[in-house]
Amino acid sequence: MSGIKLISTGSALPRQEVTNFDLEKKVDTSDEWIATRTGIRSRHYCSGDESHLGLCMAAARQAIQRAGVSPADIGVCLVATLTQDTMTPSAACVLQKELGLAEDTVCFDLNAACAGFVYGLHTAECLLAASPRRYGLVIGCEVLSRITDFTDRSTCVLFGDGAGAVVVEWGADYPSICAVMGSRGNREVLYIPGVNTGSASYIHMDGKEVFRFAVEVLPRCTHEVAEKAGVPLEAIDRFVFHQANQRILDHAVRKLKLDPARCAGNIARTGNTSAASVPILLDELVTTGQLASGQKALCAGFGGGLTWAGCLLQLA
Ligand code: ACO
């Protein structure tokens, strides 16, 4: 048995907070519609000199500093994202220099949409097993305001910007995070056109289909992770689900018969930050003492692709 444990977390949100009331001024919508349909009340957007790289750096530096490790001890640096500043160099590659990571650190970006951060944890666990260094840096970062179509009221009210980062440690005697992952190729339900299509790179989404997909896959993935880890749901301290939509989360919590107190979320304040949502919430739970040393968090994400992923992460 070998695996990774969570050592520390960090997060960064842009300065500008955009409430539903602010959106009411430029979109035909209302605070009441957004809050009752999604649970979202405000989100943050990058402005001025803020960038994807800036958010990554702020979250990563916080996590590294809290871990008390040297950048030279990090063997893997992964950024889960679909909104990096440049297609190449990758955000992870730029971070190698900015954070002072060794040149033989494995650095790359990973796109599994809103499931990306958990895909990243699994990838880090595998790569660290083959690394001479014990520590990995996994970041989820999105600047979704850049790819939001503000003429489409059914999508533009959902998304926000932000970054979350974790430092994990690999140990030969640590339990595996028992990741469960899946992909279901679908080009209609949730997609963003690529650079070669000639159309603007905005998020396109069939909300009802995403809803159906999410309420099918989130409870199933949660059960599969618990079974793989051999840990009953009752013994799991926190459930850290992708903050897509409060109604999806409420549905999953009911179906799984979970105590809502163990499923605290932050979507009301952050909106849906895709790959960043799970690590931002993890940081909030750790820094407020809601996830303590030795406790276990079942993390799960689902999104475009369609993709899904879950794992059981223990705080060292
Ligand atoms: N403000 C006011 N009215 C709106 C808005 C808005 N922002 N958006 C849509 N409406 C209107 C529609 O025009 C429609 O009006 P009509 O009946 O006169 O035609 C009415 O509200 C209902 O529209 P629906 O699209 O049927 O709304 P629905 O109840 O399905 O809610 C929503 C839309 C919230 C997107 C829902 O489908 C949903 O929760 N889907 C899940 C998608 C999701 O959470 N995605 C997250 C991103 S993807 C991810 O992270 C995996």
Automatic annotation (TrEMBL):
Pathway(s) of this molecule? Lipid metabolism; fatty acid biosynthesis
GO biological process terms on file: fatty acid biosynthetic process
Q: Which GO terms describe its molecular function?
A: 3-oxoacyl-[acyl-carrier-protein] synthase activity; beta-ketoacyl-acyl-carrier-protein synthase III activity
Quote the InterPro entries the UniProt record gives: ACP_syn_III_C, ACP_syn_III_N, FabH, Thiolase-like
Subcellular locations according to the entry = Cytoplasm
**Keyword Zinc, does the record have it?**
no
Cite the domain annotation text: The last Arg residue of the ACP-binding site is essential for the weak association between ACP/AcpP and FabH.
Listed name of the protein: Beta-ketoacyl-[acyl-carrier-protein] synthase III
